[in-house]
Amino acid sequence: MAYLLKNGQVYLEHQLVTCDIRIQNGKIAALGTDLTPLADETVFDCTAKLVTPGLVDPHVHLRDPGQTDKETIATGSAAAARGGFTTIGAMPNVIPVPDDATKVADMVQRNTENGLVHILQFSSITKNREAGDLVDFQAVKQAGAFAVSNDGSGVQDAATMLKALAGAAEAGLTLAAHVEEDSLKFGGVINAGPKAEELGVPGIINAVETSQLARDIALSEATGAHYHMCHVSTAASVRMIRQAKAAGIPVTAEVTPHHLLLSDEMIPGNDANYKMNPPLRSEADRQALIEGLCDGTIDCIATDHAPHTALEKAKGLCGSPFGITGSETAFDTLYTTFVQGAQPRFTLTQLLNWMTAAPARCFNIDAGTLLPGAAADIAVFDLKTPTTIKADEFASKGHNSPFVGQTVYGQTIATFVSGKLVYRKDDAQK
Ligand SMILES: [Zn+2]
Containing H/E element for 243? Predict the structure, then answer.
């Protein structure tokens, strides 16, 4: 199919410009004003709509294979498309863990066959994400892995992490670290502090993150290897990353929408839709994350989309698994609060950079820009019409989101992946 997106507010090279985009043969054929529709083109009137490179999310959990009651490659990628994402990075905590060339190649094939968007596959760092042997980084890279992570667990042994950083760097793979010192977990379920005391549940201290981050920054410095920190949650982590960057240590970092939008004080009670790992931290931590993003300490935004079944999440803060969904609520919640809200903190172009080019840069992904000749990965958003987030409209199997019921601006109108229309809100086509 060929499309002409007319008259959109287009995010192009860090600016918003009014222009048309011609999509032919899966690629962006032309950008310009007053492009005349060709005979075979379907015209989308994008007047007053935001047109951006498809969003890039380097951190999602698709649960497939192994836990397909929570999500599948098909439903998880449909959720991404509905959120305006065209490239996602699939974490390796599936069963079996993709930890060798054969299993990575199998995942790459499954992702291609079943995915609605571009799905990039993480290999694990260690065999089966457990203490012990490292994966063969060269082999998994050759099999199609784009990065390595043990997400869901921290790498506990320093020597293992040292060798992993060196090996991943040598293979040209970004190592994305879930940073968590197991010996400091103490069975916590939400942030340690007044809210945990009020609810009578065990707390998770900040040092569970910062103690391991300090080690990892030292190991990044020792090896010279790029280290990417997943889901930064504390003010002290922001401070440490800021210092590391100032010292020239090759560290990058991501933050989730929920850590930017929520603090532990906002947990309404024994509600597992506010339980994730790392946990929602204090308001001071949240403010530090916002500042860290704005001053470049934190490089990008990633959702940590983590679907679970309603049955699992009905078990309260102590009995339920960690994690909330994020693909379908990331852009609109962030836009509504931080760009369009009463006290704006970000510009629209900042937010778009953190969700397109910036994550692509952290992981060396060829995505996140609109240029003639590039794959036509494009999202169209409506910034003017308010909508209420409804769980039964989610494409994800997971309904575990604290944002259900909120009224937001910035719903996705259409998502194109390599020129194919993979999501369309019904009334978008004119
Ligand atoms: Zn994680």
Answer: helix 235-246
Give 374-422 pLDDT, tens digit per residue.
Answer: 999 999 999 999 999 999 999 999 999 999 999 999 999 999 999 999 9
Q: Which residue numbers belong to the known binding site for Zn(2+)?
A: 59, 61, 151, 178, 231, 304
Which residues are near ligand 1, the ion (C-beta closer than 5 Å)?
151, 178
User: In terms of residue numbers, what domain contains 281?
Assistant: 54-362
Residues catalogued as catalytic = 304
Q: Across the chain, what does the average pLDDT equal?
A: 97
Residue labelled with tokens 């397909």: 68
Calculate how far, in angstroms, residue 330's C-alpha sits from the geometric centre of ligand 1: 17
- pLDDT per residue as tens digits for the range 257-277: 999 999 999 999 999 999 999
CA of 230 to the centre of ligand 1 (A): 6
Q: How many whole angstroms from 30 Cα to the centroid of ligand 1?
A: 39
Number of domains in the chain: 2
CA 153 to ligand 1 centroid distance, Å = 7
Q: How far is the CA of 152 from the centre of ligand 1 (A)?
A: 4
CATH number for the domain that contains residue 89: 3.20.20.140
Task: Say if residue 73 is in the same domain as residue 89.
Answer: yes
pLDDT of residue 427 exceeding 60 = no
Q: Is residue 367 part of a domain?
A: no
Q: Which residues contact 132 (CB under 8 A, 6 or more apart)?
A: 126, 160
Closest among 189, 190, 187 to 266, alpha carbons compared: 190
For 191, residues 6+ apart whose C-beta sits below 8 A from its C-beta are 203, 204, 264, 279, 280, 281, 282
CATH number of the domain enclosing 390: 2.30.40.10
344 and 397 part of one domain? no
The helix, strand and coil proportions of the chain, stated in percent and rounded to the nearest 5, come to 35, 25, 40
Q: Which of the listed residues 305, 339, 362 is the one where a domain comes to its end? A: 362
